[in-house]
Design a protein that fits this description.
CATH superfamily of the largest domain: Band 7 domain
CATH topology of the largest domain: Tetrahydropterin Synthase, Chain A
Strand content: 15-25%
Helix content: 55-70%
Largest sheet: 4 strands, antiparallel
Number of domains: 3
């Protein structure tokens, strides 16, 4: 039993001793190798590596994108109006040797240095811009430009790449809020007047075109109506002429009857005519006609 325990202890001791000579680097890590506290190797690739116990030390750092949530800071604009800005930043290690040299491998110190440079960059950017430019759509372009400039600095000084800087919130003092509201109100009113005038111009054009089309349609309709009426009158005259030509006496008789009906329709009608007038031609007897 004691022999088995000794064997097990020896195996465990051998494994522990072997573990002191090797270390594993994962894909999401940045690793540096120190020799008596001095940096001797950086950017060690992923995999299994060897070291000398008690002489070499291994420091590991996360190479993934990290998030820095800063505390709100007050920044003055070119108009000397202060705004309270709350923002966050994404960053990652790209040069682990420079990062370790600048920060000692302390992530808290690295974030403090990044925050200082962000504050300095924002103070410079806000100091040359008006309040309107800060709170308007130009803010996104401002942050992109500042991120690029900030990365150029942190890459050289800290071995860090600032991936993105975004504003979460901008709080305005009461007097500044009134000024911003008035400016936005005037801009919206100007846009409304512009859209209203453009709409009136378009409406006038549509109305003028409709009036023109109305006149054209009425003229064309009147022309077509007169043409149809003329054709109808011509056909009616042709029909009357054809009927008259077949039996002139009967035609004269029917026309006279229509004239009598129209003339003697009312009770109080009075006509002063010569008894020998042709109007009474069909009211006379044979003897009267002979005379």
């Amino acid at each position: 039993m004691n022999r088995l325990g000794n064997i097990l202890f020896s195996v465990l001791a051998a494994l522990w001793l072997a573990g002191q000579f090797v270390f594993v680097v994962r894909e999401f890590e940045k690793v540096v190798l120190l020799q008596f506290g001095k940096l001797v190797q950086a950017d060690i690739p992923p995999g299994l590596h060897f070291r000398v116990p008690f002489m070499h030390q291994v420091r590991r750092f996360d190479s993934r994108i990290l998030t820095l949530d800063t505390t709100p800071e007050r920044y003055p604009t070119v108009e000397k109006k202060s705004v309270m800005v709350d923002l966050y930043a994404h960053w990652r290690i790209i040069d682990v040797a420079r990062y370790y040299t600048a920060t000692g491998g302390d992530e808290t110190r690295a974030e403090l240095l990044i925050s200082q440079r962000i504050n300095e960059g924002l103070r410079n950017q806000f100091g040359i811009r008006t309040l309107h430019e800060v709170v308007s759509g130009e803010r996104d372009a401002l942050m992109v430009d500042m991120t690029k400039k900030l990365t150029d600095i942190t890459r050289t000084e800290l071995g860090i790449e600032v991936v993105d800087v975004r504003v979460k919130r901008i709080d305005l003092p009461d007097e500044v809020s009134v000024d911003v509201y008035n400016r936005m109100n005037s801009e919206r009113a100007r846009e409304a007047r512009k859209h209203r005038s453009e709409g009136q111009e378009i409406a006038e054009g549509i109305r003028a075109d409709a009036d023109r089309q109305k006149i054209v349609l009425e003229a064309e309709a009147y022309r077509d109506a007169e043409k149809i009426r003329g054709q109808g009158d011509a056909e009616a005259a042709a029909i009357y002429a054809a009927a008259y030509g077949k039996d002139p006496d009967f035609y004269n008789f029917t026309r006279s009857l229509q004239a009598y009906r129209s003339s003697f329709n009312g009770n109080g009608d009075l006509l002063l005519l010569d008894p020998n007038s042709d109007f009474f031609h069909y009211l006379k007897g044979p003897d009267d006609k002979a005379r």
